[in-house]
Every structure is written in structure tokens, then in C-alpha cells.
Amino acid sequence: MIDMQDVYKTYRNGITAANGINVHIDAGEFLYVVGPSGAGKSTFIKMMYREVKPSKGSIIINGVNLAKLKDNKVPLLRRNIGVVFQDFKLLNTLSVYENVAFAMEVIEEQPQYIKKRVMETLELVGLKHKARALPTELSGGEQQRVAIARSIVNAPKVVIADEPTGNLDPDTSWEIMNIFEEINLRGTTIVMATHNKEIVNTITHRVIAIENGRIARDEVKGEYGYES
After folding, report:
1. Range of the domain at 182
2. Rounded to whole angstroms, how far apart are CA atoms 145 and 149?
3. Quick check: 228 pLDDT over 80?
4. Taking every annotated instance into account, which residue ranges of this chain make up the domain ABC transporter (predicted)?
């Protein structure tokens, strides 16, 4: 599903955030990405959805080499990759339903199918009853649920989550993780960058630790391995 070969990323300021990364992620895996602040986790994650372009090497996701992908093809790529951010990135003037539906409207799906799929997805994340609410009327956890619904409504094969519980209280974080677990059980590959030691050590999955732009650890059922 995801294959990185000899990936390097050096920014204009001379900082090398990816320094010879080699990673293979199978379809249906759940992978945590951990490491100290400034280690290169964000670059690793952003390269997967072409927010950042590698300086060297290949990144192949679902058969597409992101390193060679033309800029005008990036929106098409992102239709097949769900992305969840720490700060939600919802459109506050649109309702919960409209935020999720927007991801389908941009690819011109049929209105009847959009309604059916959006409501199914909101039910999955436990927010069907909040379909008409605005994001500003929701708690942080509910907003993140909407963001997750938006990321999966088009049934992507991969969901990339960048610190999805970073702004949430512990109880809400566990609720969000239960949703990710359910999505993964349905066959979606999950790649999640996180600083949450308790979650990584409790809900065990494969762990990749990045330090100084390199893969320091790659463990099938790993631990966080850093002080929280």
C-alpha cells in the first residue's frame, strides 16, 4: 500500500528532515509514528499526502509515485487518501452534514448517493444526530469526529492522521481511538503520528520511531519509548 525507498528531504534552510528513509506498509496495517519534537515526524507524514515533496527517493502509495506526481494531479491523489489534522480544519459556516458532504461534492458524486453515504458515515462516528449543527456548536471531540467522517466518506484506502488527539482530553482521545480502530477493522490502512504515550502502549500496533530524520525503530507491536 505504501512504499518509501531512499527518501530524503532537505529544506531550503539546510535542515534535513528525512535522511534515507525506507519503509513498507501493507494494506490494512495500523502504524504509529513516534519520536521527539523536531525529529522529522511531520515531514514523514506530510510527504505521504504530498504536502511536502521529497528531495530524493520514491514514495509509492496505491501504485502512484508521489515524488514524480505533477502538482495538478495532487488533488486527484487526495481523493483517495483521507487526512485528519490536530486542529480539525472544518468550515465553520457549513453544518456537520455539509462539511462531510463537501468531500463528495468536489468529485461530483450523485446527490442521492452523497446523502446516503454522509449519513452512514456520521452514524459510524456517532454524530448522525448532529448533522445540522455548526462546528462552533460542537465540542472538540465532536469536531474531530466530523473531521474523521470527512476523511473517510469517500472510502479511501489510506487514512493519515497527524496528532488527531493532540487537542483533546484523555477520555475523548480514547473515544477517537475507538473510531480509528473500527475504521482499521473495516480494512483501511491507518498511519498516525502521535505523542500520546498511553494510547501507543495500550492499543498496540506497529510503531515506527523517527529520530534525526531516520528510522530509529520499527517494531511489529511496539511501545512509545519516550518520556511523555
Report:
1. 2-219
2. 6
3. no
4. 2-228
**Structural domain contains residue 224:** no
Residue 225 domain-assigned?
no
- Residue 75 confidence (pLDDT): 83
CB-based contact 224:197 (threshold 8 Å): yes
Residue 226 lies in a domain: no
Distances (CA, A) of 111 to 81, 101, 180: 22, 9, 27
**C-alpha distance across the termini of the chain, in Å:** 31
The predicted-structure confidence for 110-147, as pLDDT tens digits, reads as follows 999 999 999 999 999 999 999 999 999 999 999 999 99
- The CA radius of gyration of the chain, in Å to the nearest whole number, is 17
Per-residue pLDDT tens over the stretch 10-25 = 999 999 999 999 999 9
Q: What's the predicted TM-score (pTM) here?
A: 0.93
Number of domains in the chain: 1
CB-based burial label for 72 (10 Å; 0-12, 13-18, 19+): exposed
Q: Which CATH number do you get for residue 76?
A: 3.40.50.300
